Amino acid sequence: AQTVTQSQPEMSVQEAETVTLSCTYDTSENNYYLFWYKQPPSRQMILVIRQEAYKQQNATENRFSVNFQKAAKSFSLKISDSQLGDTAMYFCAFMKVGGTSYGKLTFGQGTILTVHP
Amino acid sequence: DAGVIQSPRHEVTEMGQEVTLRCKPISGHNSLFWYRQTMMRGLELLIYFNNNVPIDDSGMPEDRFSAKMPNASFSTLKIQPSEPRDSAVYFCASSSWFGYTFGSGTRLTVV
What we know:
The complex is a heterodimer. Chain A is about 0% helix and about 50% strand. Chain A is an all-beta fold. In chain A, the strands form 3 sheets. In chain A, strands 2, 5, 6, 10, 11 and 12 form a 6-stranded mixed beta sheet that branches. In chain A, strands 3-9-8-7 form a 4-stranded antiparallel beta sheet, with no helix packed on it. A two-stranded antiparallel sheet of chain A has the order 1-4. In chain B, the strands form 2 sheets. In chain B, strands 2, 4, 5, 6, 9, 10 and 11 form a 7-stranded mixed beta sheet that branches. A 4-stranded antiparallel beta sheet of chain B has the order 1-3-8-7, with no helix packed on it. In chain B, a hairpin with a 2-residue loop joins strand 9 and strand 10. Chain B contains no helices and 11 strands. Chain B is globular, with a radius of gyration of 13 Å. The relative contact order of chain B is 0.34. Chains A and B meet through strand 11 of A and strand 4, strand 5 and strand 9 of B.
């Protein structure tokens, strides 16, 4: 079974600054996806970024980038130029590729990020 | 595309009553998932379907919970009888090889 751990229950950052959210995971699988989801107060789950485990290059989406360390089973999210709209709960998630459980997401506990003006 | 549509958005019911949550997945998505979010347990998968067939229901907490997917465009999650500890946000999500989309969730309160 896979586990995902987010060790930072809460984080805060000043507007325009950079913040990094941490995530570690445990799996015996070699082929998988990792995700960061954002959940604002509206409770909608919004995909922020996705990383395929077979890709060595770290994924980037505008102000959002990840530091994927496969050997260390670490997957951190960096948010640059933080904006007030980034205030939300952020979830790290794991998805195994293939097999009967393909598509199932295993989530971390979440990190509440507050961006201060 | 309207995305994954869940109804109702909010539901308040009395303990012992039957509750039915509804989900319309994105057309063309062949997998559908029901997740539950609580403060204590976070986000956890309850059940998922592939091509309308239940594949894994090991996350369904008790026999009081049941889920159906009679066709590719509709799924229900039923709780009978409901209990206060079932209070949570219930998410439906659908996926295909190119994407995974969540609905807006149903906030269930059992009093």
